[in-house]
Amino acid sequence: MGDILTVHNLNKSFGSKHVLHDVDFTVGEGRIVGLIGPNGAGKSTIMKTILGLINYESGEIQVAGQTVTPSSHEALANVGALIEYPGLYPYLTGWDHLDLFANGDHQLIHIQRIISKLNMDDFIKRLARGYSVGMKQKLGVAMALVNEPSLVILDEPMNGLDPQSIKDLRDLIIEESQKGTSFLISSHILSELEKLAQDVLIIDKGKIVSATTMHQLLVSQGRNTIFLQTSDDPKARDLLKAASFELDDGPQVRIIDRADDTLASALKTLINAGLDVNDMQREEGSLESSLLDLLAKDRVAD
Ligand SMILES: Nc1ncnc2c1ncn2[C@@H]1O[C@H](COP(=O)(O)OP(=O)(O)OP(=O)(O)O)[C@@H](O)[C@H]1O
Protein backbone atom coordinates (compact mmCIF):
# COMPACT_ATOMS: atom_id res chain seq x y z
CA MET A 1 0.00 0.00 0.00
CA GLY A 2 1.13 3.56 -0.68
CA ASP A 3 1.21 6.72 1.39
CA ILE A 4 -1.84 8.92 1.83
CA LEU A 5 0.22 11.79 3.28
CA THR A 6 3.76 12.93 2.47
CA VAL A 7 5.37 15.80 4.33
CA HIS A 8 8.74 16.73 2.89
CA ASN A 9 11.29 19.16 4.41
CA LEU A 10 8.61 21.36 5.93
CA ASN A 11 9.79 24.63 7.48
CA LYS A 12 7.58 27.07 9.29
CA SER A 13 8.28 30.25 11.25
CA PHE A 14 6.07 32.57 13.23
CA GLY A 15 7.86 35.92 12.79
CA SER A 16 11.48 35.32 13.71
CA LYS A 17 10.62 32.09 15.56
CA HIS A 18 11.49 29.03 13.49
CA VAL A 19 9.08 26.35 14.81
CA LEU A 20 9.29 23.53 12.24
CA HIS A 21 12.70 22.42 10.98
CA ASP A 22 12.82 20.22 7.85
CA VAL A 23 9.94 18.06 9.06
CA ASP A 24 9.82 14.92 6.93
CA PHE A 25 7.44 11.97 7.30
CA THR A 26 4.78 9.89 5.61
CA VAL A 27 1.49 8.32 6.70
CA GLY A 28 0.75 5.00 5.02
CA GLU A 29 -2.72 3.99 3.84
CA GLY A 30 -4.75 2.49 6.66
CA ARG A 31 -2.08 3.24 9.28
CA ILE A 32 -2.66 4.87 12.66
CA VAL A 33 0.23 7.24 13.28
CA GLY A 34 0.83 8.87 16.67
CA LEU A 35 2.45 12.31 16.80
CA ILE A 36 3.95 12.89 20.20
CA GLY A 37 6.23 15.41 21.84
CA PRO A 38 6.39 17.94 24.64
CA ASN A 39 4.32 21.13 24.86
CA GLY A 40 5.28 23.62 22.18
CA ALA A 41 7.12 20.98 20.09
CA GLY A 42 5.12 21.83 16.97
CA LYS A 43 2.42 19.11 16.81
CA SER A 44 -0.55 21.44 16.24
CA THR A 45 1.48 23.55 13.82
CA ILE A 46 2.23 20.47 11.69
CA MET A 47 -1.45 19.49 11.69
CA LYS A 48 -2.66 22.99 10.82
CA THR A 49 -0.10 23.24 8.03
CA ILE A 50 -1.22 19.91 6.53
CA LEU A 51 -4.81 21.16 6.64
CA GLY A 52 -3.91 24.33 4.72
CA LEU A 53 -4.90 26.48 7.72
CA ILE A 54 -1.51 28.18 7.93
CA ASN A 55 1.19 28.93 5.39
CA TYR A 56 4.70 27.53 5.38
CA GLU A 57 8.03 28.87 4.13
CA SER A 58 9.41 25.82 2.37
CA GLY A 59 8.84 22.14 1.85
CA GLU A 60 6.01 20.15 0.36
CA ILE A 61 2.81 18.55 1.63
CA GLN A 62 0.96 16.03 -0.49
CA VAL A 63 -2.32 14.32 0.29
CA ALA A 64 -3.06 11.40 -2.03
CA GLY A 65 -0.37 12.73 -4.37
CA GLN A 66 -1.81 16.27 -4.58
CA THR A 67 0.05 19.28 -3.17
CA VAL A 68 -1.66 21.19 -0.34
CA THR A 69 -1.11 24.88 0.41
CA PRO A 70 -3.50 27.46 1.94
CA SER A 71 -4.46 28.51 -1.59
CA SER A 72 -4.61 25.03 -3.11
CA HIS A 73 -6.46 22.48 -1.05
CA GLU A 74 -8.68 20.38 -3.31
CA ALA A 75 -6.97 17.28 -1.90
CA LEU A 76 -8.40 18.10 1.52
CA ALA A 77 -11.91 17.19 0.37
CA ASN A 78 -11.04 13.69 1.46
CA VAL A 79 -9.57 14.63 4.85
CA GLY A 80 -11.41 14.87 8.17
CA ALA A 81 -9.97 16.78 11.11
CA LEU A 82 -10.45 17.86 14.68
CA ILE A 83 -7.96 20.53 15.73
CA GLU A 84 -8.07 21.98 19.23
CA TYR A 85 -11.74 22.52 20.17
CA PRO A 86 -14.54 21.76 17.74
CA GLY A 87 -16.30 24.92 16.52
CA LEU A 88 -19.98 24.26 17.31
CA TYR A 89 -23.18 26.23 16.75
CA PRO A 90 -24.88 26.50 20.17
CA TYR A 91 -28.42 26.56 18.74
CA LEU A 92 -28.01 23.49 16.55
CA THR A 93 -28.24 19.93 17.78
CA GLY A 94 -25.43 17.44 17.42
CA TRP A 95 -27.44 15.74 14.69
CA ASP A 96 -27.79 19.07 12.81
CA HIS A 97 -24.00 19.45 12.90
CA LEU A 98 -23.47 16.01 11.38
CA ASP A 99 -26.16 16.70 8.77
CA LEU A 100 -24.51 20.03 7.92
CA PHE A 101 -21.07 18.46 7.56
CA ALA A 102 -22.21 15.45 5.59
CA ASN A 103 -21.48 15.84 1.89
CA GLY A 104 -24.59 14.03 0.82
CA ASP A 105 -23.07 10.93 -0.74
CA HIS A 106 -22.48 8.92 2.34
CA GLN A 107 -25.05 6.77 4.04
CA LEU A 108 -27.20 7.50 7.05
CA ILE A 109 -26.22 4.12 8.35
CA HIS A 110 -22.57 5.25 8.67
CA ILE A 111 -23.56 8.32 10.73
CA GLN A 112 -25.78 6.22 12.94
CA ARG A 113 -22.98 3.74 13.46
CA ILE A 114 -20.59 6.51 14.62
CA ILE A 115 -23.23 7.94 16.97
CA SER A 116 -23.85 4.58 18.49
CA LYS A 117 -20.14 3.57 18.70
CA LEU A 118 -19.35 6.83 20.53
CA ASN A 119 -22.41 6.40 22.74
CA MET A 120 -23.93 9.70 21.66
CA ASP A 121 -27.55 8.54 21.24
CA ASP A 122 -28.75 10.19 24.46
CA PHE A 123 -27.66 13.70 23.55
CA ILE A 124 -27.34 13.84 19.75
CA LYS A 125 -30.80 15.46 19.36
CA ARG A 126 -30.11 18.08 22.09
CA LEU A 127 -28.80 21.62 21.44
CA ALA A 128 -25.01 21.84 21.51
CA ARG A 129 -25.11 24.79 23.95
CA GLY A 130 -25.82 22.32 26.77
CA TYR A 131 -23.02 19.89 25.88
CA SER A 132 -20.24 19.02 28.32
CA VAL A 133 -16.59 19.13 27.21
CA GLY A 134 -16.63 15.40 26.53
CA MET A 135 -19.88 15.56 24.51
CA LYS A 136 -18.43 18.39 22.39
CA GLN A 137 -15.29 16.37 21.85
CA LYS A 138 -17.25 13.31 20.72
CA LEU A 139 -19.28 15.43 18.31
CA GLY A 140 -16.05 16.94 16.96
CA VAL A 141 -14.64 13.46 16.29
CA ALA A 142 -17.93 12.35 14.70
CA MET A 143 -17.83 15.41 12.41
CA ALA A 144 -14.28 14.49 11.36
CA LEU A 145 -15.42 10.96 10.44
CA VAL A 146 -18.81 11.67 8.92
CA ASN A 147 -17.75 11.71 5.26
CA GLU A 148 -15.65 8.54 5.51
CA PRO A 149 -12.42 10.40 4.67
CA SER A 150 -9.22 8.64 3.57
CA LEU A 151 -7.16 10.59 6.11
CA VAL A 152 -8.25 11.81 9.56
CA ILE A 153 -6.18 14.28 11.58
CA LEU A 154 -7.02 14.44 15.27
CA ASP A 155 -5.30 16.81 17.70
CA GLU A 156 -5.66 15.48 21.25
CA PRO A 157 -8.91 13.61 20.54
CA MET A 158 -9.04 12.02 24.00
CA ASN A 159 -9.24 15.43 25.72
CA GLY A 160 -12.08 15.58 28.21
CA LEU A 161 -13.19 11.97 27.63
CA ASP A 162 -13.83 9.51 30.46
CA PRO A 163 -12.16 6.07 30.37
CA GLN A 164 -15.14 4.30 28.74
CA SER A 165 -15.40 7.00 26.07
CA ILE A 166 -11.65 6.78 25.42
CA LYS A 167 -12.06 3.05 24.84
CA ASP A 168 -15.09 3.60 22.57
CA LEU A 169 -13.12 6.12 20.52
CA ARG A 170 -10.12 3.81 20.33
CA ASP A 171 -12.28 0.93 19.08
CA LEU A 172 -13.90 3.17 16.46
CA ILE A 173 -10.55 4.46 15.19
CA ILE A 174 -9.22 0.91 14.91
CA GLU A 175 -12.34 -0.21 13.01
CA GLU A 176 -12.12 2.71 10.59
CA SER A 177 -8.41 2.07 10.00
CA GLN A 178 -9.17 -1.57 9.23
CA LYS A 179 -11.49 -0.31 6.51
CA GLY A 180 -8.57 1.68 5.02
CA THR A 181 -8.77 5.10 6.72
CA SER A 182 -5.42 6.55 7.84
CA PHE A 183 -5.08 8.52 11.06
CA LEU A 184 -2.58 11.09 12.29
CA ILE A 185 -3.26 11.56 16.00
CA SER A 186 -1.54 13.69 18.61
CA SER A 187 -2.09 12.87 22.24
CA HIS A 188 -0.62 13.58 25.63
CA ILE A 189 -2.16 10.38 26.97
CA LEU A 190 0.78 8.22 26.02
CA SER A 191 -0.63 5.04 27.51
CA GLU A 192 -3.61 5.48 25.13
CA LEU A 193 -1.48 6.17 22.09
CA GLU A 194 0.49 3.06 22.93
CA LYS A 195 -2.68 0.96 22.58
CA LEU A 196 -3.70 2.68 19.36
CA ALA A 197 -0.84 3.86 17.16
CA GLN A 198 1.01 1.48 14.85
CA ASP A 199 3.61 4.09 13.87
CA VAL A 200 5.09 6.85 16.00
CA LEU A 201 6.56 10.24 15.14
CA ILE A 202 8.36 11.91 18.00
CA ILE A 203 8.85 15.63 17.66
CA ASP A 204 10.96 17.88 19.84
CA LYS A 205 11.58 21.59 19.27
CA GLY A 206 10.15 21.40 15.76
CA LYS A 207 12.28 18.44 14.62
CA ILE A 208 11.25 14.83 14.11
CA VAL A 209 13.65 12.98 16.41
CA SER A 210 12.26 9.52 15.73
CA ALA A 211 9.96 7.97 13.11
CA THR A 212 9.38 4.30 13.67
CA THR A 213 6.78 1.66 14.42
CA MET A 214 5.40 1.54 17.96
CA HIS A 215 6.75 -1.97 18.38
CA GLN A 216 10.24 -1.00 17.21
CA LEU A 217 10.27 2.06 19.47
CA LEU A 218 9.45 0.04 22.56
CA VAL A 219 11.97 -2.68 21.71
CA SER A 220 14.81 -0.45 20.51
CA GLN A 221 14.66 1.80 23.52
CA GLY A 222 15.36 -1.30 25.58
CA ARG A 223 13.36 -0.08 28.52
CA ASN A 224 12.48 -3.51 29.80
CA THR A 225 14.14 -3.80 33.18
CA ILE A 226 14.91 -6.51 35.70
CA PHE A 227 14.40 -5.53 39.31
CA LEU A 228 16.37 -7.51 41.90
CA GLN A 229 16.18 -7.43 45.67
CA THR A 230 19.47 -8.59 47.12
CA SER A 231 21.05 -9.04 50.53
CA ASP A 232 23.24 -5.96 49.85
CA ASP A 233 21.85 -3.62 47.13
CA PRO A 234 24.68 -1.01 47.16
CA LYS A 235 27.26 -3.77 46.74
CA ALA A 236 25.14 -5.47 44.07
CA ARG A 237 24.98 -2.20 42.10
CA ASP A 238 28.78 -1.78 42.31
CA LEU A 239 29.38 -5.36 41.17
CA LEU A 240 26.96 -5.12 38.25
CA LYS A 241 28.33 -1.77 37.10
CA ALA A 242 31.88 -3.17 37.24
CA ALA A 243 30.68 -6.07 35.08
CA SER A 244 29.31 -3.51 32.50
CA PHE A 245 25.60 -4.00 33.19
CA GLU A 246 23.48 -0.90 32.57
CA LEU A 247 21.58 0.18 35.68
CA ASP A 248 18.75 2.63 36.22
CA ASP A 249 19.50 5.63 38.44
CA GLY A 250 18.48 5.39 42.09
CA PRO A 251 19.45 3.11 44.96
CA GLN A 252 17.60 0.00 43.76
CA VAL A 253 19.02 -2.77 41.64
CA ARG A 254 17.21 -2.26 38.35
CA ILE A 255 19.04 -3.56 35.31
CA ILE A 256 18.22 -2.48 31.75
CA ASP A 257 17.40 -5.73 29.95
CA ARG A 258 19.04 -5.54 26.54
CA ALA A 259 20.03 -9.15 25.83
CA ASP A 260 18.56 -12.63 26.18
CA ASP A 261 21.10 -13.61 28.82
CA THR A 262 20.98 -10.42 30.95
CA LEU A 263 19.15 -12.09 33.84
CA ALA A 264 21.23 -15.28 33.91
CA SER A 265 24.56 -13.49 33.78
CA ALA A 266 23.53 -10.86 36.36
CA LEU A 267 22.45 -13.60 38.77
CA LYS A 268 25.76 -15.43 38.22
CA THR A 269 27.72 -12.23 38.92
CA LEU A 270 25.89 -11.61 42.20
CA ILE A 271 25.79 -15.18 43.46
CA ASN A 272 29.49 -15.75 42.66
CA ALA A 273 30.24 -12.69 44.82
CA GLY A 274 28.35 -14.27 47.73
CA LEU A 275 25.19 -12.12 47.60
CA ASP A 276 21.66 -13.55 48.03
CA VAL A 277 18.96 -12.63 45.53
CA ASN A 278 15.68 -12.55 47.47
CA ASP A 279 13.27 -11.42 44.80
CA MET A 280 13.16 -10.74 41.08
CA GLN A 281 10.64 -8.96 38.82
CA ARG A 282 10.67 -8.20 35.12
CA GLU A 283 9.25 -4.75 34.33
CA GLU A 284 8.06 -3.94 30.81
CA GLY A 285 9.01 -0.65 29.19
CA SER A 286 6.30 1.81 28.24
CA LEU A 287 5.94 4.43 25.57
CA GLU A 288 6.35 7.02 28.29
CA SER A 289 9.76 5.77 29.38
CA SER A 290 10.88 5.34 25.75
CA LEU A 291 9.79 8.85 24.94
CA LEU A 292 11.51 10.38 27.95
CA ASP A 293 14.70 8.54 27.01
CA LEU A 294 14.59 9.76 23.44
CA LEU A 295 13.93 13.35 24.45
CA ALA A 296 16.73 13.21 27.02
CA LYS A 297 19.14 11.94 24.32
CA ASP A 298 18.00 14.72 21.99
CA ARG A 299 18.73 17.31 24.70
CA VAL A 300 22.22 15.88 25.29
CA ALA A 301 22.90 15.99 21.53
CA ASP A 302 22.06 19.74 21.42
N1 LIG B 1 0.02 31.68 15.95
C1 LIG B 1 1.22 31.61 16.51
N2 LIG B 1 2.01 32.69 16.63
C2 LIG B 1 3.24 32.61 17.18
N3 LIG B 1 3.79 31.47 17.66
C3 LIG B 1 3.05 30.36 17.58
C4 LIG B 1 1.73 30.35 17.01
N4 LIG B 1 1.25 29.08 17.06
C5 LIG B 1 2.21 28.33 17.64
N5 LIG B 1 3.29 29.09 17.95
C6 LIG B 1 4.56 28.61 18.55
O1 LIG B 1 4.99 27.50 17.80
C7 LIG B 1 5.56 26.51 18.64
C8 LIG B 1 4.84 25.19 18.39
O2 LIG B 1 3.51 25.30 18.89
P1 LIG B 1 2.44 24.15 18.71
O3 LIG B 1 1.13 24.67 19.19
O4 LIG B 1 2.52 23.62 17.33
O5 LIG B 1 3.02 23.05 19.71
P2 LIG B 1 2.35 21.70 20.24
O6 LIG B 1 3.40 20.64 20.09
O7 LIG B 1 1.05 21.47 19.55
O8 LIG B 1 2.16 22.05 21.77
P3 LIG B 1 1.06 21.56 22.85
O9 LIG B 1 1.38 20.12 23.16
O10 LIG B 1 1.34 22.45 24.01
O11 LIG B 1 -0.31 21.75 22.25
C9 LIG B 1 5.43 27.03 20.06
O12 LIG B 1 6.66 27.62 20.41
C10 LIG B 1 4.36 28.08 19.96
O13 LIG B 1 4.55 29.09 20.92
Automatic annotation (TrEMBL):
Keywords noted in UniProt: ATP-binding, Nucleotide-binding, Transport
Gene Ontology molecular functions: ATP binding; ATP hydrolysis activity
Signal peptide limits: none
Segments forming domain ABC transporter: 5-230
Pfam families xrefs: ABC_tran (PF00005)
Superkingdom of the organism of origin: Bacteria
Sequence similarity: Belongs to the ABC transporter superfamily.
Protein name: ABC transporter ATP-binding protein
Species of origin: Secundilactobacillus paracollinoides
